[in-house]
Specification:
The structure is a homodimer. Chain A is an alpha+beta fold. Chain A has 2 domains: 62 residues, Orthogonal Bundle (Arc Repressor Mutant, subunit A), CATH 1.10.10.10; 76 residues, Gyrase A, domain 2 (2-Layer Sandwich), CATH 3.30.1360. Helices cover 45% and strands 23% of the residues of chain A. Chain A is built from 7 helices and 6 strands. The longest helix of chain A has 16 residues. The structure holds a DNA duplex.
DNA sequence: ATGCAAGTTGCATATTTATACAAATATAGC
DNA sequence: GCTATATTTGTATAAATATGCAACTTGCAT
């Protein structure tokens, strides 16, 4: 499992710093970094890591990391201590925070651009999440845990 | 050329509102919407529109529209240019705007005094519309288009 | 109208990516 | 240790996607 973690880290590093336009290309770069991997495994890794393939004007297509934990990984790990609960009702999610933190908490959620979270509204200590009609709550939780790991502790 | 614009609009609409996991699937949905298209052309359209393919827990992979979060400095005279999407979930409408514009956008909606829109709540980049229980979404859209003509472009 | 350039499309196919399945490896419980 | 169970991986292949090319269309200047 540690082998895998190391591999993930290398993949992330390469994708963050270079314009990679195919898995074959990434395999070659990984080999240069001392990581041997087959295309099948890489495909599965990328899926697991939520790496997206997006059009790019020069290279045709490039891989990009999910725009979640990148910018503010350190920030959000601190800030998530201010979340006190997460509940659901119908097509709504309700995230309670310590007083005054709702807006701050809602920013990275907006940046997720999850197709399952249509929008958020922040009050003082409550963030309302408007969910897609057939959104899966488990998935929503997973997405949120990725930005706010500490959420696990209050679930 | 107008044929193409129309096709783009339909593609956008479908991708925004549904979880589409392959081009074949999208082709089928487009046909249902009266748009005949081959896989080659669709591939090119998606590339042109900067549509990304991202992993998704249930469906494996889904197509998503590019982040409309372009913080461009040029101020638009038309306020409706700051609306980036409109979706629905249950008895709620969700209007996404550029960061900071939600309150401004909500004002004329409130002034509509539509019996179908019971009230609005504006966050930073999201306006929540609470709809009458049996409100018709098509009618809501019509009302909004009357105030924000440019909405048509993002539907 | 005619011809030309630029743009668009479908077909066929190359390229790329995902996955079923079996083998290999790790993990837990005795 | 050993066996059972789960996880990870590679191989081979299926599935999905991108693209070269030729045909067709569109707009525009002659």
């Amino acid at each position: 499992m540690n082998q895998k973690t190391q591999r993930f880290a290398t993949i992330r590093k390469i994708i963050r710093n270079e314009l990679i336009s195919s898995q074959e290309e990434l395999i070659a770069r990984l080999r240069e970094c001392g990581v041997e991997i087959t295309q099948s495994t890489l495909s599965r890794d990328l899926k697991f890591m939520n790496v997206a393939k997006v059009p790019h004007k020069d290279k045709g297509y490039i891989y990009v990391l999910p725009n979640t934990v990148q910018h503010d990984a350190n920030v959000s790990s601190n800030i998530s201590d201010n979340i006190t609960s997460l509940t659901f009702s119908g097509n709504l999610g309700v995230l309670k925070t310590k007083s005054g933190y709702a807006s701050a908490i809602s920013v990275p959620i907006d940046n997720l651009d999850s197709p399952d979270i249509l929008g958020t509204i922040a009050g003082d200590n409550t963030v309302l999440l408007i969910l897609r009609e057939d959104a899966n709550r488990g998935q929503i939780i997973e997405s949120l845990v990725r930005i706010f790991p500490m959420i696990n502790n209050i679930l």
